[in-house]
From TrEMBL:
Superkingdom, taxonomy of origin: Eukaryota
GO molecular function: polygalacturonase activity
SMART domains referenced in this protein's UniProt entry, alphabetically: PbH1
Protein name: Polygalacturonase
Family: Belongs to the glycosyl hydrolase 28 family.
Source organism per UniProt: Carnegiea gigantea
Amino acid sequence: MHNHVLQILVLCLSAAISADGETCSGIVPMRHRAENISITDFGGVGDGETVNTAAFAAAIKKIEQLRSEGGTVLYIPPGVYLTERFNLTSKMTLFLAKDAVIKATQDTLDWPLADPLPSYGRGRERPGGRYMSFILGDGVHDIIITGENGTIDGQGGVWWNMWRRRTLRYTRPHLIEFMHSSQVIISNVILKNSPFWNIHPVYCSYFVAQYVTILAPADSPNTDGIDPDSSSNVCIEDSYISTGDDLIAIKSGWDEYGIAYGRPSSNITIRRVKGSSPYAGIAVGSETSGGVEHVLAEHINLFNMGVGIHIKTKVGRGGFIRNITVSDVHIKNARRGIKISGDVGDHPDDRFNPNAIPVVEGITMKNIRGEKIRQPGLIKGIKNAPFTSICLYDVNLNGSIAEITTWECSDVEGSSVKVSPWPCSELISRQGTGSCSIQT
């Protein structure tokens, strides 16, 4: 069994080399583990009824004791392994075989709590702390979650109903979260029914998510797909996401707490992602108080969307959003194609600084096509603090004949070339001059 695991692991990691050429390969080294253990070695039973919390805890402890220089694979064979939440450790691979399922228990009464993130100051949904994530890596490095497209199931329905009934005491748990961690790969797994956000790397560096499928019902509340948060050198590619909220949302802290923490999200690449959501496909914000910069999103395919591309912030956020490039996007059937807005989101408390005005500059949208788009775009800056260097090039967001509408713009400066329907007058038509350097 152990040699079989190693062979499969090599195949899965090798599959990360895309036929399109550019990949995340090299951002995080691929590891071939020296040791292999199975959850069944520790009493794990995959019958869908036995609670395997003790088995996971014992297996993780064994990995820590082995201290193998090359690390250890924890193999999850076919079956349904019910468990309470658990932590990961450094230098390990969590490998899910084909037809293996790690399923969260639905007992919320004894779910442990964690302190709020310092860049948020409180739970994102409720004041105070937050429920700990189902799978958590805190202060770890060299972690791989992969397999033969096995499943991690958060059984989020009980949490969604608590949110709908307003009976939540604390903020819901993420499905997978890494904090203060580096050299992380998540690949070749299916994530479904997360209680809250699916994948949340926060205060991390060198983080890769590729060949991941993320699923949740369209009406499931706040089930964001992947949310890089105050993290750098992140690559997300070749994935399918269909959830009840933003597919990918880049964040960096909330109002005065994010400003004080001061850790931006930077150097983030998103490519070859496909999916649908009643909210946004690729989003920045709205929590961007630590700043977001140097983002590239390309070759994105979106359908049945609320908004295709959404950049969002608010007075009181502070921080900056700059050097964002979105290119080669296809959007089919959306309420709005592009939205860049300075009046989106709420505040953690009444102590935010009303003079903390976010800076939004250097946003480029190019080679974007839309079908059945009800409203092409809205760009609404902040009064006396306009968004600047907003550049649109080769953007076609026409709806049906009966739905052709105009762009809405205010407090924005920038340029446009080859845009249909023709955008607002604030985006001056240029050909490679001024604030927009795109050449025709």
